[in-house]
Amino acid sequence: MGPTAPAPDNVGLHRFAVFTALATTFLIFAGGLVTSTGSGLAVPDWPLSYGMFFPPMVGGVFYEHGHRLVAAFVGILTCVLAVWAALKEERPWVRWLSIGALLAVISQAILGGITVRYLLPTPVSVSHAMLAQTFYCVIVSLALFTSPDWKRGLPVAGPRAGAPSLPWLCAVMSGAVYLQLLLGALMRHTGSGLAIPDFPLAFGRFIPDFDASGVSIHYAHRVGAVAVTGIVVWTLVRVLSGYRRHPRLVRPAVLIAALLSVQLTLGAFTVWSAKAVMITTFHVANGAVILGASVFLTIRSFAMLPPGSARRGTA
Amino acid sequence: MNSKRALGLAFALTLAAAGCGGGGDEFSLPDGAGSGGAAPTGPAYDPATATAGISGSILFEGDAPEMSLIQMSADPYCLDAGAGTRTEEVLVTDDGKLRNTMIFIRSGHDTGLFYAPPAEPVVLDQQGCRYIPHVFTMMMNQDITFRNSDDTLHNIHAFPMENMQINVGQAVQGMENTDSFTIAEGPFAIRCDVHRWMNSFTAVFDHPFHTTSGDTGDYTISVPPGTYEVVAWHERYGEMTGSVTVAAGETAELSFTYSEPAA
User: Fold this and answer.
1) ipTM score here?
2) Is the pLDDT of residue A252 over 90?
3) How would you classify the pairing of strands B143-148 and B176-180?
4) Which domains does chain B have, with CATH numbers?
5) In chain A, which residues have their Cβ closer than 8 Å to the Cβ of B73?
């Protein structure tokens, strides 16, 4: 992925990648609905549903089978994306990344099947949730790498400065968000979402008794939220103070901060509403969008702040 | 800060929760069944030795809470077939007796005997998008038949703690599936994930000395003469225990009284 001659625009492929990313966002929302409504086992068989391709969409079947249908749609999109990239994309590493996306979505489908067939074992369900986030990051990356903006070469915003430098700070932010989503998945799939029933305190205190594992997981998620907030604010301040003339960095940094404030609000209301379905599900989906935006900013910042002297191309 | 809290805080701060999943089974219920464990392999129990009896009523003191109407709009069939259905958590008869309570012997019976399971299966039916019966008891290795009498699909999802979970789908009216539980264990829930309001409760015993208060609020258990610890279990009000001694040819009376706890 080193500096090379700019690759030709392929706006169609880029737009398709963006569409796939949007569809994946909706897929994560649909998957969140399955857990929020407790419908994960409403369809006990897999890959068919009650032995059918299209069972009656009643009760929990609507959510579980609906999730499968959206997943199948995203799977087809990813397959088309990989084939399209194989045929039209000149950069081998982009072709390989699209194949990686295809393998990830296939693995994700199999994991989804295993979690149904084995009655939602926590490790498998959490792996299913986290592979979804990983796949989402890959698709967002593909949308970025196939953009004309990227292919023509992003402008250099300056040398890497500070410790940590902005790109590495963004990388830490992405890692922290990913870990926070892991804790969120653990919380959901161990039924710990209301293990601490009050907010912002925990059983009326800053630090609760950790008599049950659910309390520990839930509290870890809250601590994680504080850590992520700190890193996001740090990143935003760094971008605004050092790179405010570069909207390619400012916009995603501001977006992440805005999404985070929404996320914290949704998290609070998830507890206050005793896990109302829509609030909880938007909390899940918004978390994924924050991760995608963090990965987006991380990649951009690495490209726009090259180590050492400035470079011209990013393709 | 005591050591437990400190450890827990360290756990949270280091984000090391991943390895400590477990728990979180929202349907876990207190142990309340018989002796549990594997079947005794001693001489066979002779039902003819059950010459004594324990009987009584499950009484309810005070005003019974009103059961709410079930919102069944998630499935048009259920909306029609189950119109007017209320939750069955607390059902009190006109003469003040609590229905759907399990009653069973916890100790006092001969644990060295082999108690053969009944040849006939228990049947859990789905009618009007609810389970019938709402509460029942069964023996380990006794067949249980799940039947779908509804013109809509259901899944039957059992949440035992000791036995393997069961999750079976029944897409077509009239479908039947038969299974069994091989380990004795206390009350657990059976639910439909398609229609989240549908639930039923059962317990699995390694002996035949168990029943429910059914529709009348009364019960009778035939037992050999002896002294027994008797347990009543209700899905909302939990467990009560009593002791009774009964001689051959006699029936001892043992009633339990539940009430709504003060708010």
Assistant:
1) 0.83
2) yes
3) antiparallel
4) 26-259 (2.60.40.420)
5) none
